[in-house]
């Protein structure tokens, strides 16, 4: 029996699937099975998978059911003591499984090990890192924000997965919902290394962002419905964090064609977050968002981007001294 089962949901992933699978096959820990759930792909995904010669690879094809269904199908096929999920457009550092497995063995009370993430562009360019520091009983911290960031991050004990059951739709928030259900009963352990490279795809239309935000707000409502009374005071802060995060998302996706309405979305979400949790206005993050919003109202989009890039270069220059 393999020690680790890796579940990769794949839907029309011809552009990235081979690179993703290569990052798995390059792992320093090799005792795994690689389960790819072909989720009704209509492109060359299945043909490309057939070119891979590796006895650890198992491909199962189904009609399209979405990411949550694909992960659940992969869990049912898994035989390992530990399970990892990897989206078909993300990548792993080569010692990801080795170090996460060692962390779980060192901490028997932990049901899930996670690592730091580096966000990358569609072309694979490094964008920005996420480096949370939470260990142990993280349920309260996870109610405030999804510090795991993505579905390709954790390695999970099979017992922890069996204790919470299946992923639930909608797919855009299924990760956070699942980590919360595990955190309610299990400790988490952090591996302080950038192991996950989470790819941002160019499908971030405002209407899609609106839908994702509403799904997250619905997931949070459900999470707090089941949260113990002692955690209910965190709800306003959690909702505020979500609104302010989406203010940043809208800000990153502003374009010249629809600039006025997109700026309005930034302002609306930013102030909704401040209204829900007023003390957030004292944080550097919120103050930075306010400053950026004011600047983009005053400057053209081109001049705003020039200013931001200049600030980044100056910071990099200063840090290199």
Automatic annotation (TrEMBL):
User: Which keywords has UniProt assigned to this entry?
Assistant: Transferase
Which SUPFAM superfamilies does this chain map to? Nucleotide-diphospho-sugar transferases
Taxonomically, the superkingdom here is Bacteria
Q: Which Pfam families match?
A: Glyco_tranf_2_2
The Glycosyltransferase 2-like prokaryotic type domain covers: 5-245
Q: Name one GO molecular function term.
A: transferase activity
Q: Does the keyword Transferase apply?
A: yes
Q: Does Isomerase count among this protein's keywords?
A: no
**Entry-linked InterPro entries:** Glycosyltransf_2, GlycosylTrfase-like_prok, Nucleotide-diphossugar_trans
**What is this protein identified as?**
Glycosyl transferase
């Amino acid at each position: 029996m393999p020690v680790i089962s890796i579940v990769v949901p794949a839907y029309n992933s011809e552009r990235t699937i081979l690179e993703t699978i290569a990052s798995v096959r390059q792992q320093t820990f090799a005792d795994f099975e690689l389960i790819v759930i072909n989720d009704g792909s209509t492109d060359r995904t299945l043909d490309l998978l057939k070119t891979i010669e590796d006895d650890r690879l198992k491909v199962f094809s189904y009609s399209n059911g979405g990411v949550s269904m694909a992960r659940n199908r992969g869990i049912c096929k898994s035989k390992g003591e530990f399970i990892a999920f990897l989206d078909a457009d993300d990548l792993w550092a080569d010692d990801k499984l080795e170090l996460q497995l060692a962390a779980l063995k060192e901490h028997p009370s932990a049901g899930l090990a996670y690592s730091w993430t580096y966000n990358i562009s569609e072309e694979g360019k490094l964008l920005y890192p996420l480096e949370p520091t939470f260990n142990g009983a993280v349920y309260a911290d996870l109610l405030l924000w999804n510090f795991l960031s993505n579905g390709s991050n954790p390695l999970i004990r099979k017992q922890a997965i069996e204790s919470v059951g299946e992923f639930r739709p909608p797919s855009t928030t299924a990760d956070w919902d699942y980590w919360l259900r595990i955190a309610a009963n299990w400790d988490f352990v952090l591996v302080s290394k950038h192991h996950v490279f989470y790819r941002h795809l160019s499908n971030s239309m405002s209407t899609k962002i609106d839908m994702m935000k509403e799904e997250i707000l619905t997931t949070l409502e459900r999470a707090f419905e089941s949260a113990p009374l002692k955690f209910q005071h965190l709800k306003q802060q959690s909702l505020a964090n979500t609104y302010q995060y989406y203010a940043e998302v809208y800000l990153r996706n502003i374009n010249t064609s629809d600039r006025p309405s997109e700026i309005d979305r930034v302002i609306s979400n930013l102030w909704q977050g401040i209204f829900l949790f007023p003390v957030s206005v004292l944080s550097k993050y919120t103050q930075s968002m306010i400053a950026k919003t004011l600047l983009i109202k005053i400057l053209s989009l081109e001049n705003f981007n020039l200013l931001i890039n200049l600030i980044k270069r100056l910071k990099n220059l200063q840090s290199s001294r």
